[in-house]
Each structure stands twice: as structure tokens, then as C-alpha cells.
Amino acid sequence: RYLCQSNVLPSHIKITVTRQTLFEDSYHQVMRLPAYELRRRLYIIFRGEEGLDYGGVSREWFFLLSHEVLNPMYCLFEYANKNNYSLQINPASYVNPDHLLYFKFIGRFIAMALYHGRFIYSGFTMPFYKRMLNKKLTMKDIESIDPEFYNSLVWIHENNIDECGLEMYFSVDFEILGQVIHHELKEAGDKIRVDEANKEEYLRLMTEWRMTRGIEDQTKAIF
């Protein structure tokens, strides 16, 4: 917090929005500015409600806007699973043609919240936070977002694959919006069978794939 305050730029930036079009207004106002300008003190104005902003209005703006990113119209995020309401990037966000620009905006918005010490409504999954901190993701991180998938990896880890007679290869299929997508975990993965000797590599590659499945471009746009 001290480092943020010591690096703040003089003067302020004015962001003027309408409550009815909060997301779009905020997007256009924030994205038109160079990133370094967002270190200036924020002066938020809701049209028709002009007044002095001593911090309360900007706090409300952060809170309302962080809630708005959940709007299904934008298709940007989804809940981790039916029992975990933490947010993760929606692999199907590409149905919105502007999704990568919106993710870049959200990355700026999160950075602004951290820099200015503001609360945001939404809570993200632990893998999301670990990516933000550039921390290594592990197989254990899958448990909170996809318990069934995690348990299947644990079973492979704890059992002798050669004795089970399973035909698994270094490839995987997954479905997005009814479309089945085939992915090779490594070059020629379709032809490489998983056995006891190479299963640790398989688990590592499968973990990396599950954490980035369909969201590589979105993640780059945010971070």
C-alpha cells in the first residue's frame, strides 16, 4: 500500500459514467487512457449525480462495476462449478467478438482496484489469483474447480497404469458450446500411450492443459 501511495501521480483523472450503461462507459473511459495515467487519483462522476468525490463514489464505482462483469450478456466469466461460486474465465467467451478487449479492460480494472486499495465485489478462483501472482499451478489446484477431474488424476497417480489395462494417450477431447475439440498434450500425443514410466509427465501436461483449457488468449489479455 505504501509503495502504491509513493508512486501515485499528481492531479487526477475524471471518469464519467451512467448507471444504466456502467460497463460500456467505464470500458471506453479507462481504455482511452495510457495505463500509467490510471495511477492518478480517481474522480468518478455518475451523470446526473454530480458532486464531490471524497472516496465514497469511487468505492461505489469499483463495487458496482465488479458486479457488472458477471452480466451474462458479456459471457466473460463463469462460476467454477455448482458448489463453488468463485469466478473463472469462461472458455466460451469468444461468442462475444470483443471479449479480448474486455478482458484487457478487466485486467486494468483489477490493477486499479489493487493500486487504489478498493474493494471489488467478485471473488475469483485460487488458480486465477496464482496466475496473477505468477505462482506455479499444481495438480492440487484443480480440486477446487473440478473435483471429479482432480480425483481421476489422483487415481492415475496412485495406481499402476500398466496393471490396469487402460488405453490412455497424450491427448484429450473437450466440449465447448456443443463443439468437441481435440488437443494433443505433446507432439504426436495421439500415438504416445500413457504407461507407468511416463505417467508423471502425462499428469503434469494434463494439469497444465486443464488450467488453461480454452482460455489462453483471455488470460494473456488480462495479465
UniProtKB/TrEMBL annotation:
Instruction: Answer whether the UniProt record assigns the keyword NAD to this protein.
Output: no
Q: Which cellular components does GO assign to this protein?
A: cytoplasm
Q: What class of enzyme is it?
A: transferase
Q: Name one Pfam family in it.
A: HECT
Q: In which pathway does it act?
A: Protein modification; protein ubiquitination
The molecule here is called HECT-type E3 ubiquitin transferase
Lineage, top-rank taxon, reads Eukaryota
Question: What EC identifiers does the entry list?
Answer: 2.3.2.26
Upper classification of the organism: Eukaryota, Metazoa, Ecdysozoa, Arthropoda, Hexapoda
Reaction(s) catalyzed by this protein? S-ubiquitinyl-[E2 ubiquitin-conjugating enzyme]-L-cysteine + [acceptor protein]-L-lysine = [E2 ubiquitin-conjugating enzyme]-L-cysteine + N(6)-ubiquitinyl-[acceptor protein]-L-lysine
Alphabetized UniProt keyword annotations = Transferase, Ubl conjugation pathway
Gene3D superfamilies xrefs: Hect, E3 ligase catalytic domain, Hect, E3 ligase catalytic domains
What's an example GO BP annotation here? Answer: regulation of signal transduction
Which residues belong to any copy of the HECT domain? 34-223
